[in-house]
Specification:
Blueprint lengths: L2 H23 L3 E5 L6 E4 L6 H15 L2 H12 L12 H9 L6 H17 L19 E3 L6 H6 L5 H16 L17 E5 L3 E4 L8 H15 L2 H4 L3 H14 L22 H14 L7 H18 L29 E2 H14 L9
Antiparallel strand pairs: 1-2, 1-6, 3-4, 4-5
Helix pairs in contact: 1-12, 1-13, 2-3, 2-4, 2-13, 4-5, 7-8, 8-10, 8-11, 11-12, 11-13, 12-13
Length: 367
C-alpha cells in the first residue's frame, strides 16, 4: 500500500471520530477518552488542550470543504478568545494550533495576532522568557518544554520585536533543556531536563517534575526547533545554533533511533507508552525534513514509519463497544496515574496533522 493510500484511510478514520466527538461534547472541549468505550472527559474552557480540538475541527473542514464544518470550527475557535490574555505560555499550544489550520480566515488571523501581541507583552527580559505563568497555579517563573511549541510562530508573527522575542524565548529554553546554561552540564548520555525555575537571587534551578526522560517534553522541544527553522525571521538570528540544536535533540531524544512509539518516561522507564509523544515527534520530523538539516531524508522516512505504526497498531477500527478512529495508548500523566492508556485530544490532532501532510491536505510548513 502506498503512503498516500494508508495515510488517507487513517486520516478518514480520525476525521470520522471528530464528528462522533463533536456530537458527544457539544460546547465543551474534549480532553481524554476512555479506551474501553470512548467516552470523553471534558473541560468547559479548554484548558491547555482546547486549541487541538479547534484544530481538529479545522482539519475536518479542510477535508470536507463544507460551510457547516467551517462554521463549527470557527465557533469553537472563537470560544478560545479569552485565553489570549491569560497568564500562561501554553497560549502557544492553545492559540497557534487553533488558528494555523484555519484557511487564513479573518477571524482566526485576528485572534492569532491578538494572542501574539499579548504574549509579546508578557516577555520578561530578566529570565529571558515568556513565563510559564500563573494561570494553572504554581510558580510563575518556570521554563517548561511545553511552553515553547506554538509560542515561537505565534510570537514571530506578532510584529515589532516579536521575532527577536521568539528567538530569545526558544534559545533560553534550549540552553536549559540541553544543559548549556547550568553548572550541572548534561553529558551525552543524560536525558534533557524539561522544567526549570527562575529565582532572581540564584538563577535557574531544575524542577523535579516533569522529570528528565519525559518523552512528550522531548517531542515538544523538537517541534519548537523545527518551527523556528521554518521561520526565517527567527532562524536567521542564530541559524548555526538552531541547526546544531536540532541535531543534538535528534541524538539526545533518540527520535531517529529509539522506539517508534516511546514510553511515557524514558528515564526512569515507565510500563506505559505515549502515542501522543510519537505523533508530535512525527510532525516535528516532517517539518525538519523541509528545513534541509542534516539527515533530512531520514527525518521524512522516520516520520512516515511512526505515523504508519500509529495507524496500524494504535488506531481503533470499526466494531462494537467503541468508535473507530481513536488513537489509543496515549499517556496524560504517568506519575499521577491519570489517563495512562487513553485517547488524548492532542494525540489525535498531531496524528491527523501528520496524516494530512502525507495526504496533501495541508502544507506542514505553515501549521
Amino acid at each position: 500500500m502506498t503512503a498516500d493510500a494508508w495515510a488517507g484511510r487513517a486520516l478518514a478514520a480520525v476525521i470520522g471520530r471528530v464528528t462522533v466527538t463533536e456530537a458527544e461534547v457539544g460546547e465543551r472541549f474534549p480532553l481524554y477518552a476512555d479506551p474501553g468505550d470512548g467516552r470523553w472527559t471534558t473541560t468547559g474552557r479548554g484548558s491547555w488542550t482546547g486549541g487541538f480540538w479547534a484544530g481538529l475541527l479545522w482539519l475536518r473542514a479542510r477535508g470536507t470543504r463544507t460551510e457547516a464544518d467551517r462554521l463549527a470550527a470557527a465557533r469553537c475557535t472563537a470560544r478560545l478568545a479569552p485565553w489570549a490574555t491569560a497568564d500562561t505560555a501554553t497560549r502557544g499550544l492553545i492559540l497557534w494550533y487553533a488558528t494555523a489550520p484555519a484557511f487564513d480566515t479573518e477571524e482566526a488571523a485576528a485572534l492569532r495576532g491578538a494572542a501574539g501581541r499579548a504574549c509579546l507583552a508578557s516577555y520578561d527580559p530578566g529570565p529571558g522568557i515568556v513565563p510559564w505563568g500563573a494561570a494553572f497555579g504554581g510558580p510563575r517563573l518556570l521554563a517548561r518544554a511545553d511552553g515553547v511549541p506554538g509560542l515561537v510562530p505565534l510570537l514571530a508573527r506578532a510584529g515589532g520585536e516579536g521575532p527577536a522575542v521568539a528567538a530569545a524565548h526558544l534559545h533560553r529554553h534550549l540552553g536549559l533543556f540541553l544543559g548549556e546554561e547550568h553548572e550541572e552540564r548534561s553529558g551525552s548520555g543524560v536525558r534533557p531536563r524539561p522544567a526549570w525555575r527562575f529565582d532572581a537571587a540564584t538563577g535557574w534551578r531544575p524542577c523535579p517534575d516533569p522529570a528528565p526522560g519525559w518523552s512528550r517534553g522531548e517531542a515538544w522541544m523538537l517541534l519548537a526547533v523545527a518551527d523556528a527553522l521554518l521561520c526565517p525571521e527567527v532562524a536567521g538570528r542564530r541559524p548555526e545554533r538552531l541547526t546544531l540544536a536540532a541535531e543534538r535533540l535528534l541524538t539526545r531524544t533518540e527520535a531517529l533511533s529509539g522506539p517508534l512509539v516511546p514510553p511515557a518516561h524514558v528515564s526512569p522507564p515507565q510500563p506505559v507508552l505515549d502515542t501522543s509523544a510519537a505523533a508530535i515527534t512525527a510532525v516535528a520530523l516532517l517539518k525538519l525534513a523541509r528545513t534541509g538539516v542534516p539527515r533530512a531524508a531520514l527525518c521524512s522516512l522516520r516520520a512516515q514509519a511512526v505515523l504508519k505504526r500509529l495507524a496500524e497498531d494504535h488506531l481503533t477500527g470499526p466494531g462494537p463497544g467503541r468508535p473507530a478512529g481513536m488513537l489509543l495508548d496515549g499517556c496524560y500523566d504517568a506519575a499521577k496515574g491519570v489517563a495512562v492508556r487513553h485517547e488524548l485530544i492532542w494525540g489525535d490532532f498531531f496524528l491527523a496533522l501528520g496524516l494530512a501532510a502525507l495526504d496533501g491536505l495541508v502544507d506542514i510548513t505553515h501549521v
